[in-house]
């Protein structure tokens, strides 16, 4: 079976050699030396002021919402993974869905202002598939209305936009280092913010809200371990190689998929150094998508409906907020297999199967 993704694994000997120091110092978790080394290496690699390594990309969003003391309504995207919405609900906030841009599939900044109410406190947007949101326009609207901007940058590790890491935008950015992501630590995530007071607060929250015997606030456990950090330390130096390998495969798909308007792709905004994290294609109709999916599955190729359903249609939300663009694209978009060592002949076979439908 060819899966939609495949986690990169370093040589086992490389992983265990990093862990040798853990067997010596018996420091397994609670911000040990490997966690701190990984944070430093990520900061240097991506050019960030600060990075906090946390247990996953979902708790990362929750910690940010908590640290900015947000409540009420948050303007968010309906086209993302369910964790974006769930973290909002878990923090007792109300998600207000703003429809997406039909080119980038990111939140449509032009539709934000009409949705702002006296209860609105923030914007939570996803750089979906690693494609940058309209950060300038979002920042301007946020400033005008006194809102915080938080980016779910779970797909954006390694993306540069206008000369800097996409994780540098907004009041805070979160990332996921889950095993299915481009750069992974098995489970893991990160928070980046330029606001050092907020970073202090987040750091406190992610470790039960106390330092030694001094108890400051209601915290939670969002820490990550030395074992996860060791995987990150192995994988981080391979980032450029992993992106390059995906780029080659993405370009092969581009050249083999017969277009002629039958298959469309999201547009990479200008001034973006992309990471090729996913390979989404949009078909003419949901019926064609289902046919393609079934045919590929018969040939042992697994695809994923990333992202479906449109989050404003989640069955457990008891509101109806129509987002016609997101609902339309969600029904027609499919992510094809994309990983660092996906074989050329498999891509050729997948494209041939799609082209016959
Ligand atoms: C993967 C993902 C998350 C959640 O990350 P975890 O590390 O799995 O908790 C959040 N948002 C988006 C857009 C994601 O793709």
Describe the model.
- This protein is an alpha/beta fold.
- The protein folds into two domains: 12-99 and 106-237, Type I PLP-dependent aspartate aminotransferase-like (Major domain) (Aspartate Aminotransferase, domain 2, 3-Layer(aba) Sandwich); 239-356, Aspartate Aminotransferase, domain 1 (Alpha-Beta Complex).
- The protein has eleven helices and 15 strands.
- It has helices spanning 12-25, 33-46, 57-67, 82-90, 135-145, 196-205, 226-235, 239-256, 286-298, 324-332, 344-355; strands at residues 52-54, 73-76, 94-97, 120-126, 148-152, 160-161, 164-165, 172-176, 189-192, 210-211, 214-215, 263-264, 272-273, 279-283, 333-336.
- Helix 3 (57-67) crosses helix 4.
- It is globular and about 65 Å long.
- The two termini are 21 Å apart.
- The model has no long low-confidence stretch (mean pLDDT 97).
What Rg do the Cα atoms give?
Answer: 20 Å
- Main pleated-sheet profile: 7 strands, mixed
Mean pLDDT: 97
| Helical segment count | 11
Structural class call reads alpha/beta
**How many domains is the backbone divided into?**
2
Helix content: 25-40%
CATH class of the largest domain: Alpha Beta
Q: Numbering strands along the chain, what is their spatial order in the largest sheet? A: 1-9-8-5-4-2-3
CATH fold category name of the largest domain: Aspartate Aminotransferase, domain 2
Strand content: 5-15%
Q: Catalogue the ligands.
A: pyridoxal-5'-phosphate
Beginning-to-end CA distance, first to last residue: 21 Å
Low-confidence blocks of residues: none
Shape, principal axes of CA atoms? globular
